[in-house]
Specification:
heterodimer; A: alpha/beta; 2 domains; seven-stranded mixed beta sheet; 26% strand; globular
Amino acid sequence: MEPKTIYTGKTGQISARKEVIRIRNLKKGFGDNQVLRGFNLTLYEGENLVVMGKSGSGKSVMIKCLVGLVAPDEGLVEVLGRDISTLGQKELDLLRSDIGFLFQGSALYDSMTVRENLEFPMRRHREKLGVVKDSLPRVLEALESVGLASAIDLMPVELSGGMKRRVALARALILKPKLILYDEPTSGLDPITSKEIIELMRSIQKKYGTSSLIITHDVDCARVISERILLLVDGVNYAEGTYRELAGSRDPKVQAFFKK
Amino acid sequence: MDPNESIAHRIKGFLIETGQLTYFAGRFFKEVFRPPYEVREFLRQCYQMGNRSLMLVLVTGFIIGLVLTLQSRPTLIEFGAESWMPNMVGISIVREIGPVITALICAGRIASGIGAELGSMRVSEQIDAMEVSGTNPFKYLVVTRILATTLMLPLLVIFGDIIALYGSALVEYLKGGMSFQLYFNKVFSALSFGDFIPATLKSFFFGFVIGLVGCYKGYYCKKGTAGVGKAANTAVVTSSLLVFFVDFMAVFISDIFYEL
């Protein structure tokens, strides 16, 4: 199915910027289940792009293809100018140090304290960080940016859902990435905590100037944070535009996402 | 369903599982010699598995020694061979009962623990998070655990054997008035290096299969809490069966050497 582009005006302005992610004709299946059927996406430097789609539409598979957790069957996946499929393990690890990943369920390491969780990504990237002997200042800086410096010695089990998400965000920031991937950042959170997380995402984007790809079902999250929204239906692009344009669309499939 | 088809399906499943487990073991041998070495995590696992299983092994070993002596005593008295008790108990504990019972306890405690821990890490995307942060999760989680079980099990067997002999000696002292010194003199005069070496060697293999199966089941755990439960359960069943299989092979091979 060809993408049904509802709006391209803003993309025209943004496209003058450097491309951070380029996906072309991405296909991925698991057995008989073809999840992605030729998906295309471009994320520009400093942009916040939201990808929306129903459960099982292939959003999480797509985001995992970007960091090499899932190998595509076909298509091009370029992140920060590097084709993922051509990278060796060392090069892939180096590229991953420029990408922050916020997992759906936070994915904090249960057996480690908050401090150890944040130190963990630093252990393989000493060269990039200029051999940090004492990692504490960096850990504190990341925790302060999410307002949780006091939780440094707590175990994940002692944190609430919202706090876990904040710590996971701090962990994603610890290597000062150029790009942050958010997989359902507000799922499972109450509306107030969701708003706090969304505000935090915005402030981080302003502070660090990162590009962000956000996968979500949350219309409020998409409204507040997106510059551009891409709808993924049945493994292909269905529609693309700003929140206002898509929310005003008369297309029933687009409406299904935005009507409250 | 056609019963023949069901049997064929099961045989196919068994062969696939065996192939995957063999590949997993091959990957372990490939990764174990490659830097970076996760020394801290390896030592932590040694502590977790060795220290925390020790009490269980000691209590079980002591009871086995007591029971074996109490049960065998009447028969040996009937034949006027009660002075042979230390020889009989010593050989049976060092060569067979000590290693197998300790391995079965560890299969129940350690294999299920590893299966559940890695399974829940897989389900909650902690393994993916580890990979994205540039750490090889196979090396960090699997290699360290298999090495720790392989090295800790022989130590646990030694402690288990010693305490089982003490249990037996206690019964002989209380029931037959034999001193501890005389008991252990008789035990060591009955044992040779040919008894210790195969028992110690097979303990390494027991530890290896327990770690291997626990890690394999957890690492490839299916999604959901049911998947974690199944991983823990099948880890115990499969590793216990493999312990008996390895034991049979060890006895078979050592028997060939005895005949030579």
